[in-house]
Amino acid sequence: MAQSRRKFVRMLAVLPALAAPWAPVLGKAKPKSPQRSKDGFGRLLAETLAGASWTETDKISLDVPDLAENGAIVPISVESRLPNTSRVLIFVEKNPKPLAARIHFRPGTDGFVSLRLKMNETSPILVIAESEGQFFGTQRFVRVMTGGCG
Predict the structure, then answer these.
(1) What is the pLDDT of residues 102-116, one digit of tens each?
(2) What CA–CA distances, in Å, run from 132 to 83, 95, 123, 129, 146?
(3) pLDDT by residue (tens digit) across 14-33?
């Protein structure tokens, strides 16, 4: 039993040395994320809405500060006064993953949500609500202070 355990430990010690030459080749094989490309936000928006377009409306109220002192905790409140709101999508355009929140509502509930977002940098926030199969939205530009300086 001791002999086979020693052989196993020796084999484990040799594995990193055998895998080291292949590490640079394997590291280059990362697929490009559609969210990080130049038009990635538009593509993500089109995929999320299944190719449908959205209309600007004043029936969605978006309460978010114009100037966020701390990008790690940006308070946001969204209220949809559209009839039969089934879901609300919140996008932060310049985040690595722009779709920040997806909230589904059961029939008969109010379309209201309040949460805190993390924003990497100054960016527009887009809120889209789905009501009776159509998409409506509103957006606001939020400036994020970095290191206490705007």
Answers:
(1) 999 999 888 999 999
(2) 8, 29, 29, 10, 40
(3) 777 766 665 555 554 444 44
The dihedrals phi and psi of 104, each to the nearest 5 degrees, come to: -105, 140
Q: 73: helix, coil or strand?
A: coil
Task: Report the chain's mean pLDDT, rounded to a whole number.
Answer: 83
Kindly report the CATH number assigned to the domain that includes residue 58. Answer: 2.60.40.2470
Residue 80 and residue 57: Cα distance in Å, rounded?
A: 10
* Whether the Cβ atoms of residue 124 and residue 139 lie closer than 8 Å to each other: yes
Average pLDDT over residues 59-65: 95
SS3 annotation, 31-66: CCCHHHCCCHHHHHHHHHCCCCCEEECCCEEEECCC
Count of domains for the chain: 1
